[in-house]
Every structure is written in structure tokens, then in C-alpha cells.
Design brief:
Elements lengths: L5 H28 L6 H26 L17 E2 L8 E2 L6 H11 L17 H18 L37 H15 L17 H9 L25 H21 L5 H27 L26 H15 L4 H7 L3
Antiparallel strand pairs: 1-2
Length: 357
């Protein structure tokens, strides 16, 4: 589908968000399966996930700036596994699966592969993500020449404060951060940040001009080639569902899915409000869930047998959780967390954290 109008561009930016969102659980699931959460492979994958989240926000900012409204909490938007990487040709299958060298080489590196030297922009059926984003960037420049795209960029609706994002280990600030989109220059900068963090700064291996951060492709390559040995991996299943687990663990997995789904509800709210204090509070809640809650639940699950008489561990399932009323999702999560804490005392901290929502 060619990008010929503002509406086409808005649709492609929604696609771009879904591309980014589809990679995050795939990478997180593999990361959670790594036994040593203080190891370099664990931190490398985490550094990539953090930047995929940044890319999602940058693309959403761009969509808002041209008059669109990004959609998050929607069963048609949230990824469901197994699935193909959206709009990629040939199909590239994404699963929730334990980390392994085969997974890194067969899934992660192809996702992040730099475009061929002669690779042209591709607005659909793209060979590499970089070619897709190049098509988006060219369309932005072309459309803005015909009719200004950024006359009313609606900055107050965007994630506009750079302090909302901070790089983690293996990332550096100089490779790019969170900025509002206000004009053609900042729009192109947002796209370029996505490209050079993922696939490369021109034909180099680096995400930043000072050569302190490798691109996602070359971060994964450091695991694949043994620069950072993978180490022990927990035997988690591929593409599990909550029903696959011991009944005592299903409420824990359900709580993970509810919290995960609630992050999408929060993103919808963040991009709907123009009240700065409300936005700050929503972003703070988002980070509590992402940094303090999801990882704890996931690591608890992967430390427990999925069922009796098996060595396979339980794991987060990243399933869509349907809230009775999304506007009251926090209340529902607090109730789920209280029930889990009553039976899994190691997760009592989760009940304490979600009380703040």
C-alpha cells in the first residue's frame, strides 16, 4: 500500500507501532528465560527492549503530530503469538520461546538485519524494517512539501518530556532519546533514531556517532558469537497459555497478563490527555508496572514448574486481558494482586506496588 495521503501515513505509523510492539514480548520472554538476570546477555536484551519502547513512543508522537491518534489497548493491535512480523516479506515467524543461539540467529538478528546496500524504501512487504522506515521518512518529506503536515502538532498530547526516557546499560544517551515532534526536522530525527538504533548509523555497526553503543543487530550478534556467553536458560515452553499451567499458577499468569494489558490502557490515556500533571502521573504508573511489576511476576513464574512431574517451567503468556471497564482497570488489577499475594507470599510486594496506581 503506497503512502500517498496524510491518512495513508497515519495508517503506516500505526503499522510501525505494531511492528515495534510485536518484538517486545518476543525479546522479553527470551530475556526472562535467562537464568542470571545480572548477566551481560540479559542486560543486552533488556537494552534492546527499552529502545523498542522508545521507538514506539517516537512513532506515536509522530502520528499525533500529523493529526492521527495511536491505538494501543485493542485486541487487534496487541500482539498474539505465534504471529508473523507485521507486513514483512518473506514471512518472519515470531514465537514466545526460550533464549538460545538458534533463536538469536534465526529470529532476533533477522528482525534487526540492516538493509542491503542497494535496498530501496519499501512501504509494505518490506525486506528489512529499515527499508520500511525509509519509506515512511520519504513520505513525510514528500507530503510535507505538498501540504504542511505539522501546522498543529498537538505537542501536549505527545510524550513530550525527555525525562520520561533514560537509557540503561549498553545504551547511551547520544544515540537518541524521547523528543516531541513539532516539525519536519524533528519528525525525520525521530525516524532516524529508530533506524540507527535498530539497524545502524549508515553502514556502520554503531547507534551513536561516538561509537559507544552497538545497534540492536550487533548487540544480538555479541550473544550469538559468544562474546557474551548465554549461560543457563530456564526450560520455559514455547507459546504457552495460562491453561497450560498448574491451577495454582494460573492466577499469577493472569495477573501478569492484566498488568501487561494495562500498560496499553495507560498508553492510550497518555496520548489522549493534554493535562501535564495527569500525563506525568500516568507515565510514572507505566514505569512502576514495567520496571517493578512485570519482571518480578515473570521471574517468579519461570522459577516454578509449570505442572507436577515436569521440568518445564511456567512463564508469562502475554495474552490479551479484557477489562470489564478499561477506565477502572487499576481497581481490577489491585484485586487480582491481592488474591495472588494471599497464596504466593513472595509476590506480596506486587500488591504493595499496584496499590499506588
Amino acid at each position: 500500500m503506497a503512502i500517498e495521503t496524510r491518512e495513508d501515513l497515519q495508517e503506516h505509523l500505526q503499522w510501525a507501532m505494531q511492528v515495534e510492539l510485536s518484538t517486545i514480548p518476543t525479546y522479553l520472554y527470551a530475556m526472562y528465560s535467562i537464568e542470571d538476570e545480572h548477566s551481560d546477555p540479559y542486560k543486552l536484551v533488556r537494552s534492546i527492549v527499552v529502545e523498542e519502547m522508545l521507538h514506539t513512543a517516537l512513532v506515536a508522537n509522530l502520528n499525533v503530530a500529523i493529526g492521527g491518534q495511536p491505538a494501543f489497548y485493542d485486541e487487534a493491535v496487541m500482539p498474539s503469538y505465534p504471529m508473523d512480523l507485521p507486513h514483512h516479506k518473506p514471512p518472519l515467524r515470531l514465537n514466545l520461546q526460550p533464549c538460545s543461539i538458534e533463536f538469536i540467529e534465526g529470529v532476533c538478528m533477522p528482525i534487526e538485519h540492516p538493509r542491503p546496500v542497494d535496498g530501496l524504501p519499501e512501504d509494505d512487504d518490506y525486506e528489512t524494517i529499515e527499508q520500511f522506515y525509509l519509506a515512511v521518512e520519504h513520505a513525510i518529506e514528500s507530503l510535507d512539501q505538498r501540504e504542511p503536515l505539522f501546522e498543529t502538532p498537538r505537542v501536549a498530547r505527545q510524550m513530550m518530556d525527555p525525562s520520561y526516557y533514560a537509557p540503561v546499560e549498553f545504551d547511551v544517551e547520544e544515540s537518541g532519546g524521547l523528543r516531541p515532534v513539532t516539525d519536519l526536522e524533528s519528525a525525520c530525527l525521530a525516524v532516524e533514531t529508530v533506524i540507527h538504533q535498530g539497524e545502524g548509523l549508515r553502514d556502520e555497526h554503531w547507534a551513536d556517532p561516538g561509537h559507544h553503543e552497538l545497534t540492536h543487530y550487533y548487540k544480538f550478534k555479541q550473544i550469538a558469537d559468544g562474546t557474551y556467553p548465554l549461560g543457563t536458560v530456564r526450560p520455559v515452553p514455547t507459546n504457552p497459555t495460562r491453561d497450560d499451567f498448574d491451577p495454582a499458577l494460573r492466577p499469577v499468569a493472569e495477573l501478569f497478563d492484566a498488568v501487561y494489558s494495562y500498560t496499553f490502557v495507560l498508553m492510550d490515556e497518555i496520548y489522549s490527555t493534554t493535562d501535564r500533571e495527569e500525563k506525568d502521573a500516568l507515565v510514572a504508573n507505566l514505569y512502576v508496572l514495567m520496571s517493578g511489576v512485570l519482571g518480578r511476576i515473570a521471574r517468579y513464574l519461570t522459577s516454578r514448574p509449570a505442572a507436577d512431574d515436569t521440568d518445564v517451567r511456567a512463564a508469562p503468556t502475554f495474552e490479551f486481558y479484557r477489562f470489564e471497564e478499561p477506565s477502572k482497570a487499576a481497581t481490577e488489577i489491585r484485586e487480582l494482586a491481592a488474591a495472588v499475594a494471599s497464596n504466593h507470599e513472595e509476590l506480596a510486594i506486587i500488591e504493595t506496588l499496584v496499590k499506588r496506581l
